[in-house]
Queue: 3 jobs
Job 1
Amino acid sequence: MFSRDNWKEIFETIQKNKLRTFLSGFTVSLGILIFVVLFGMGNGLINTFNEFFGDDATNVLYVFPGRTTIPYKGYKSNRVIEFDNSDLRDIEKNLALFVEYTTPRISRSALVKYKNESNNYSTRAVGPAHQDAEKTIIMKGRFLNKADIKNRTKYVVIGRLVEQDLFGTENSIGKYIDVAGSAFMVIGVFQDEGGDNEERLIYMPYTTRQLIEKNTDKIDQLIVAFKPEIGYTGAMALDRSLDKFFKEKKYISPDDQSGIFIRNVADQLKQNQQFARVLQLIVGFVAFGTIIAGIIGISNIMVFVVKERTKELGIRKALGATPRSVIGSILLESVFITTISGFIGMLLGMAILNSLGEKLKDYFITNPYIDSTMAISATVLLILFGALAGYIPAKRAAEIKPIVALRDE
Amino acid sequence: MGSNSLHVLKGINFSVEEGELVAIMGSSGSGKSTLLNILGMLDVLDEGSYTLDGVPIKNLNETKAAQYRNKFLGFVFQSFNLINYKSAMENVALPLYYQKVGRKERQEKALKYLEQVGLREWADHLPSELSGGQKQRVAIARAMAAEPKVLLADEPTGALDSTTSYEVMDLIQKINDAGNTILIVTHEPDIADMCKRIVHLKDGVIVEDKKITQVRASQYV
């Protein structure tokens, strides 16, 4: 069945029926191409989601103070809630079971100068643990440490782009910069995968910031990291405990929705991952539909091909072609065309995905890809069904009596 | 094929010897094509028996029938039935392909038979580039290429003008002279007269079966 002669016969048939070959090949190629590209885009979408959250620690809760809306325990509504250093200590003491670390964050914008260069930057006054919360990567020097907090040192850690803006090619470590009128020494330079804005930040000890601001102990927001081993349910429990703890401590009504806000990264991540997964499912469904459409397309073409060849097959049978050889040649031809064009479509699709890379990042598609096992299985599936789709009409054609086939005009 | 069976042939009893050239005649609907199709194993008989070269032909599955057709029979049709995307030579070589003859030998044989029908120079032409008479000669070469025991021709001159018809008959007579057995279905008396025996069918029965003196086609060519 697979002798060289058979192949030659098939090649000749393919060569001399170019339109037919082109049509079936094109259908298969297009089907696989669309499948690969769509599926890859789905993966690109997930990549984007992961990237959004990948640059920050995912075991983190952000706690913001708000404004009360309900009078409670003798306090009027519309009261501004503030955090101070005691809150930090209380969390670490009361929720020690859950909490891995905490850090405050006080954000201020400041004009920063070095020699003739100056620019406005966001400064963040934080504790040492902030490095883990933001996954800040130190390029040179060091991050803030406990001694800096204790001694209220006038040290800053600057973003890669801050150094680039102010220092150019000069090394910034050990140099002094002017932050809103006070001189700070640069002790470290960091980079962050969160993008350019994250690399235009300046970190300083929160105690130093509090000292500058008339020795206050107020804090803008708290960042609480939980132990990863407590898992998602633990994180949700901590979320509730924090809410309860602050509402009691700050005299906020348990029903007040805006006295305090907690942003739970774990919860958001889970929701977004679910969203991404649903998107992927939808994209996968559409892609699968494309494959089905491809199968139907190739089936139709095969029915048409066999119909068109009925008379020819009748002649061949009159000349001594056995049903087996009739089926064999139709099937081999169809499998050959679908295999070649299927893999062309697949490779083309993969090439398109590869060339896209980051180009569609504005549309939330980053590095779209399809793993080759998936692509190959889809292609093989289409080839198999193409063969099956060819087999049924081929078998029917082989069973037609030659005299009937010959009468067919 | 419907539920009503139609008796086309109603008791035919005849035999053909090796080397004969038989014309089967009759008006349309007399059953002459059905008879030829049964002889050619293109159609199956409901009752009776058919023996070809000592082999009883019955209860054949398609595979077996195909092999017998390939080995024993060569066909010539009224509408030529050449495969339109294959050249004359490839058409002639096709039965040999199904006999599993090697490619080289196939081509040599095909050329040899094309030579016999006088179309060697046309070997690379497609059927669409040939005249009706040439197409039928290619078809005859194809039927002969498998070196069959019997050549069955269904109205081989039906689609040709009389001059071309005589050329084709001349060719058929020459093939018969070489010892081949040939059956021709025709309704044209002048074509029938060029055979050696005429079987007349009417309404599915043989009404006349006579040996005649052959009229040579070459005198008209």
Job 2
Amino acid sequence: MFPTPIEKSSRSWQFGYQGLLPLALIFWLMPLIAVAIFSIKPEADFSQGNYWGWPSSFEGFANYALVFTASDMPRYLLNSVLITLPTVIGAVALSCMTGFALGIYRFKGNMWLFFMFVAGNFVPFQILMVPVRELTLGLGIYDTKLGLVLFHVAFQTGFCTLFMRNFIRALPKELIEAARVEGVSELRIFWYVVLPLMKPAIAALAVLIFTFIWNDYFWALVLTQGPGSQPVTAGITSFNAEYRAAYHLMSAGSLVAALPPVAMFFAMQKHFIAGLTLGAVK
Amino acid sequence: MTSMPLASSSRLPSRASWWHRNQQSLTPWLMLAPGVIFFLVYVIFPIFQSFHISLFEWDGLGPKEFVGLYNYEELYWDDAFYVSLRNNILWLLLYMLAIPAGLAIALFLNQTVTGIRLYKSLFFFPFVISQVVVGLVFSWFYDPTFGMFNVMLGWIGLDPVNVLGDERFVTYGIIVAGLWPQTAYCMILYLTGLNAVDPEQIEAGRLDGAKGLKMLWHIILPQLRPATFIAFVVTIIGALRSFDLISIMTNGGPFGESRVLAFYMFEVALSEYGFRMGYGAAIAVVLFLIMMIYIAFFLWKMARDERGH
């Protein structure tokens, strides 16, 4: 293990390290901690200039309740859910199929199709912006959740295909050969042999895509407009415009908007990191 | 191998046999069709359409007017374009700091003391929250009247600075905000990489008297090469995609000094400054060509690795 395990070092450094950890963490998360403190302060503290002192009272509950009752926040959150979940399902489903096709079969053009997905996945969004907006307007789904979902599914399929194809490549080939010898049809091999083995990859992709899509801001600006369809990342800016200078509410609102992916991360940590670090180890 | 299923299917009645005989060559295309069609329509075709639109003057509603390469010529004389390009280069260079910073934190956290798992997760935290929230958090952090940043400057005896309102500092201030989640990402890549480092090589190095930085440089880093490669790729893409933070923190200001190409393109094509789709597309094409260098490099490396299999 590198660096040298702490148990093997001097007693004083062991204590030093244990003490350093929380300090480093507080320093690292300082901007976030500041916002969390803001979100439980009463309004009066800000008007009296008590930004960094002890809160004169703890209004956390009232502030967060206000975010949920006195604004469009619940709607934005619901929109985010209704955009994110279908995208996750769509992108994972499509890429299970494309990954299977590219990972199992040898045929002309396999490599080129794979490269198309990989390259498309890296393009700057801006080159797609004008045409995709036109397409969405033309289909009559501008400013709808469906319009966003369709684009997200298509774009994420690039990354997901890269991921799934590499995962399937690493599966034992003998299983599929054996099934073919038994006379199992190709579609049944996909459904009954390969798909069950892909569960860890599906879980990893699902949490990753959930986070990516929940946190998307650019496409929400390009393809949607109002509280009817905008997700919470775009909604938070209107929320802030409405509560300008009400820092306790803006802080609470921001934390609410940030929470779902954080919860997802802590619940599915193992899968999340497995997905994110794909390829970081040979 | 492939003759086996053919042999078994030839025994089936002839009406089912066409599918059975050809299923191994048909199935991949059947499986690919939905994904490929979606991807072509929403990603691949639009790239070419953008090239096409960049040759027109178009407000997004009325008729398109063909102007040839005029948009690119205008870009050549556009000061705002050069400011954006300069900032893009700044982003690319300074964003690289996320890689050594991520490695440093990973080395710091790669221990087995109690509670270390929770520490690792909490250090990774900034990457999970949306850039919109990161932007908000940092714009309050920098706020000239109450921001924590100026409080901290006060501790070391410096005068308050309005980071986001000063054209000298604004881009650096936003890049620091972007480095926060990006460093967390690189950290997790290196933590995973460090987990897989071969302990025998470390022992061998120790016997040879390698320690500290020497050990890191000669024995650890070569083994972390895959992690470093991924870190480079995601950091470059992250730097070129920087849009959210700029939009949230400064909206390109002050005086357009914090724009990057991605933001300037959006501003030209879709904001209150006017709907110049053709000009916006031309900026996007330039951005795309810059990114193309990296995409080509990545594909080249991947093709090489594939052949190695």
Job 3
Amino acid sequence: MNDSFVAPAVDWLYLAPILVVLGAGVVGVLIEAFVPARVRRTVQVVLALLATAAAFALVVVLWRDPAVQGSDVAPYGVRVLGGSMVIDPFGLAVQGIVVLLAFLAILVIADRTSTGQDAFAPSAAAVPGSPYEDLTRRKGLEQTEVYPLVLFAVGGMMIFPATGNLLVMFVALEVLSLPLYVLSAMARRRRLLSQEASFKYFLLGAFASALFVFGVALVYGFAGSVDLVEVYRSLATPGGPLASMPGLVVVGALLVLAGLLFKIGAAPFHAWTPDVYQGAPTPITGFMAACTKAAAFGALLRVLYVVSLGLAQSSPATREDLFVALWVVTLLTMVVGTVVGAVQTDVKRLLAYSSIAHAGFILVGVVGFSQLSLRATVFYLLVYGLATVGAFAVVTLVRETAPVRERVPATVGAGEAGAPDNPSDDSGEQPVAVLGEATHLAQWAGLGRRSPWLAGTFSLFLLSMAGIPLTAGFVAKFTAFGAAIAGPDGQGGGSTWVLAVVGVLASAVAVFFYVRIIVLMFFTAPAGGADEGSGEGAGASEGAGVTVVRSAGPTTVAIAVCALGVLLLGVFPSPVLDLAAEAVKFVP
Amino acid sequence: MELTHYLVLAAILFAIGAATVLLRRNAIIVFMGVELMLNATNLAFVTFARMHGDVTGQVLAFFVMVVAAAEVVVGLAIIVSIFRTRRSASVDDVNLLKS
């Protein structure tokens, strides 16, 4: 026997962005153990921001790398560790989008606002309402494990779209999901809802990844390999012991796609989205809504292209069937997202349904199956992510208030600064305590009068999601639907234009519920605001006022960057569209 | 071929696991259903590895085991924290989040 071990050659350079993020996550865990509590939070925040910024810089450097972009003599893309990681322009583009959005999301996560509290429970392990929880609040504990967890999730999200191996994809899926399950359970307020969100997310997520991995097993049975290139080869030219069982690979591919569509939040697999988005801490919701979707669409495109190109060689009829399934998913996603979204009364749930609808719009671009549709998808993911992180960042600042009676309620950290948190712009005749987020839509009435800037930027994000011209959302939808109309051959062939028509109609319905919020904020008198106090429309908690807390800085920066991005990409989209066009180079 | 029997068994186990997830009420049992699905996958991986005559499938089974273990850690933590809050591990009692 040959017993000498040959170490594999690894192109560490091309893994650098991922290694930086995951390495920072590991260092973050050590910081929890060794850095004194006083400075722990600062160190964690700085580390997380530096890591994501450095990863973004590395992605930019690699983008211009000749081995990645290819040349006249060499093809593009680098296969690291025999295809376990595929660093090609497409993978890098999605990685760049993920780390950019993660950077902005970490800014929002790190913000303690003028109340001096972040969005996370002082100790997530404490039973809600127990004396121990009371104690952790009084002591002013902080759960700084949030930052390493976010970094691990980002690491998984960066591997997910940049791997050519189904097993690595599965591991990346878990690496990105497990931290998100935990993060969902850590809200400071409404902890029962938060735990419930985490519970549902976990059970459904575990179910979906079990489907995914069984699909991988079936594909492995057919192809004899989990490498996507090998899968393509066996699909195109069937051979091997199980070549007589093409049903194996069809069922396998459907299961794999189901697992990926679950992460995207597409329609038959969307049931978790509203509950999890509503229950999770709002900064985390923004993070996972934007970044998970980008990463999962990257992985979905890879699998979809391999399966579709391979089946086109061997059995076009099966490919057609697969497309019918995708069509149904796309249509259903758009319809469910917009129709159910239109009757929501909770801002976070509404944004969740909006995110489902956007998954449908992106899928419209995806099923165009051309270079155009890849470009549209990459651009759409960036635009959607910016608007989503921004919108959820705004939601974190709009808070409920309650008049203070004898003592400060347990929900407010009494440890900080002694006096009850009194927003300075509220020249209080009566001290009020700032509670959790005011997520009920009725509580947002008249927000535009009290804080025109905040309401204005929120309107901008909503208009972008609605796809109004001069915002980035319009360009994104235009390119996505354009790709669908152009069809697979880019010449207007195929019948994917039907999807584009439904997409436009669904967008029109969606405009209704976005504009409804804008009208509510600017043209409706506050129902349960500071001047009324009755708030029968609010229904959430009687006697509760609504206030806007001041950001401690980071959230303002994040909102400003997102708003600027949405505007700039809407007015001058061409540079980024050109970049996205370069990103369509794609190693299967 | 004899080996296909193992594949059929894997499919049956997977179906039982999926049915458990979808039908049972107790969170722990639901969770066991997920584990059953993952182990059915392992059986399928190993059988396919035998059919193809390469060890890749056996290695994949190890990866799935490790991931399943990590999932158990996180999952049980979440279920226990819910149970300590509500004194119940029934998936039907977890219904505060409704539109």
